[in-house]
Amino acid sequence: MEIVYEGSILRLNGETMRVYDLTKLSILVLEKHLLILRLLTDVFREFGMPPVRSTHDPEVAWKMYCQPPTDIILSDWTEGLDGMAFLTKIRQDEDSPNPFIPFLVCTANTEYRHVCYARDKGMTDFLAKPVSAHTIYSRICAMVEDDRNFIRTTDFFGPDRRRYQNVEYPGNDRRMRLR
Q1: pLDDT in tens, the chain (179 residues)
Q2: 169 falls within a domain
Q3: Which of 84, 115, 150, 154 reaches 20 to 30 Å from 102, CA-CA?
Q4: What letter would DSSP give residue 81?
Q5: Residue ranges making up the domain that contains 65
Q6: How far apart are CA 108 and CA 114, in angstroms?
Q7: The model scores a pTM over 0.90
Q8: Looking at residue 33, which CATH number applies to its domain?
Q9: Coil vs helix vs strand at 64
Q10: Quick check: is 15 in a domain?
């Protein structure tokens, strides 16, 4: 991995991207596989981020999350680790310190139905495994650049799922915008 900073431009393995100061972002990683957890930790360190708080246990992750600061959550979703239950708890639990927190799902469950399911649970963005430093950085940048409104309906709470649609709805918009 080659990271080169040139003023406000970042060249990551030859691709140009906008530079953000990530040195103050606190990230919490819930990941089942130790090897991937080490990879993610190394990537975040290369980006200049503070030490990553991480675990393979959702209950430990919840306790870490409840002890500020946490700015972004990156969660696995695989057999033996239900990242969707953790996401639901973050978004729905009355004791959640920040139900609006950016939540990045990182999984090998990449079928369309899995992406839709995670979206409908309230994820902010999705990363398909295997991951690279480039895709991680680009997703973090996307979350910084695209601060979506949150929507609450009877059966959904999370970022507006109509991210790329600029179409006005002709009827009554019954959703309550929260952000």
Answers
A1: 566 666 666 666 666 667 778 888 899 999 999 999 998 988 898 888 888 999 999 999 999 999 988 999 999 999 999 999 999 999 999 999 999 999 999 999 989 999 999 999 999 999 999 888 888 988 888 887 777 788 888 888 888 866 544 555 566 655 555 55
A2: no
A3: 154
A4: B
A5: 23-161
A6: 10
A7: no
A8: 3.40.50.2300
A9: helix
A10: no
